[in-house]
Amino acid sequence: MTSANAESGLRKFRFGAGGEGNRDEGGARKFVKLAQTAEEYGFDTFAVPDHLGNQVGPLAALGALSQATDKIRLATSVLANGYRHPALLAKEATTIDVLSKGRLELGIGAGWMKEEFDKAGIEFESPGARIRRLDESLTILDGLLRGEEVNFDGEFYTIKGLVGSPRPRQGPRPPIAVGGGGPKMLALAAKHADIISVATGTTAEGKLRLSDMTMEKTIERVDRIRQAAGDRFAEIELNWTIATIVVTDDREATAEMALAALDRGYPPNIAMDVKLSVEDILQSPYLAFGSFEQIADQIREVRRRTTMSYVGIFPTQMDAFAPVIPLLKGE
Question: Which of 85, 149, 158, 164 has most Cβ atoms within 10 angstroms of its Cβ?
Fold first, then answer.
């Protein structure tokens, strides 16, 4: 079954907001209020990224949110594996799951911001080593998050008879989310993850590839996950994050403006490795231009063609996207 005709067995939509607690959002003081607002809007999940720059610490922040919110699920999006030993991370994660009454989604990745590793004096390993390290971490986390005894002797980690505690509220363990855009990371995610964040690929300089933002390239990445996951594919929830939302009554003109900006080199974190058309822009899962109803229709079409159903929104776009949620909730 290809992505384009996967009409049956589609998952219900879920919606993820997020926050960093940085100055643009009002700092750490307003961080809790941001999550409470996301809950009021009807978002299903509130996620905190993991960077060493201007943001709150994700695990401490989720501990606070476990007490300040009631229903919204709490996520990391995503933890850099190289920053924490999996045995210590498992302890923090299960504690948050218990305190939140079973609302944790643990997102983890290989780590990609070399500059932050360098500033902190943490070795930034080769891509292959970071992926192998993450593979070991995910194996260890799977056991410890279940409250099991883990024995493990690997290239990077050695665990001797450690029992995971406290036992998590969710059974058999909190869901694990892994993001990726390249073939090796997608294959690793297909092996371990309950939720896969289908990301765009990056260049050696860390820029996002514009070519990867098209519908066709996204379908290719989903098909790669399907092939790698085999029978597991039906159990995996697929997530993507909309990079830009523009509420407008003229989608085509907005797409033309976006193309003109890209030609001028804006935003600077996108690598212009291909020339896109207005239609390419309007079909991209990662861009949402139009009225609230048109954006809702676009998201339905993304799910129809890719099976991705878990929609992520950047922190600064939470208010703009909120009116779309009632149009899709429950579908």
Answer: 164
- The pair of three-digit structure tokens given for residue 104, joined into one six-digit string: 């944790």
Tokens 């500033």 correspond to 119
Nearest CA-CA partner of 325 in 39, 34, 51, 3: 39
Please compute the mean of the pLDDT values over residues 272-294 and round it to a whole number: 93
The model's pLDDT over 18-49, given as tens digits with 9 standing for 90+, comes to 999 888 888 888 999 999 999 999 999 999 99
Q: How many CB atoms lie within 10 A of CB 260?
A: 10
- Give Cα separations from 258 to 164, 187, 250, 263, 264 (angstroms): 49, 32, 13, 9, 10
- Secondary structure of the chain in the HEC alphabet? CCHHHCCCCCCCCEEEEECCCCHHHCCHHHHHHHHHHHHHHCCCEEEECCCCCCCCCHHHHHHHHHHHCCCCEEEECCEEHHHCCHHHHHHHHHHHHHHCCCCEEEEEECCCCHHHHHHHCCCCCCHHHHHHHHHHHHHHHHHHCCCCEEEEECCCCEEEEEECCCCCCCCCCCCEEEEECCHHHHHHHHHHCCEEEECCCECCCCCEEHHHHCHHHHHHHHHHHHHHHHHHHHHCEEEEEECEEEECCCHHHHHHHHHHHHHCCCCCCEECCCCCCHHHHHHCCCEEEECHHHHHHHHHHHHHHHCCCEEEECHHHHHHHHHHHHHHCCC
Average pLDDT over residues 234-246: 95
Q: How far apart are CA 56 and CA 51, in angstroms?
A: 9
Give the pLDDT band of residue 4 (cuts 50, 70, 90): very low
Q: Which residues pair with 313 in a beta bridge?
A: 242
β-bridge partners, 153: 158
Please tell me the pTM assigned to this model: 0.92
Q: How confident is the model at residue 143 (pLDDT cuts 50, 70, 90)?
A: very high
> Measured between alpha carbons, how far is 147 from 2 in angstroms, rounded to an integer?
37
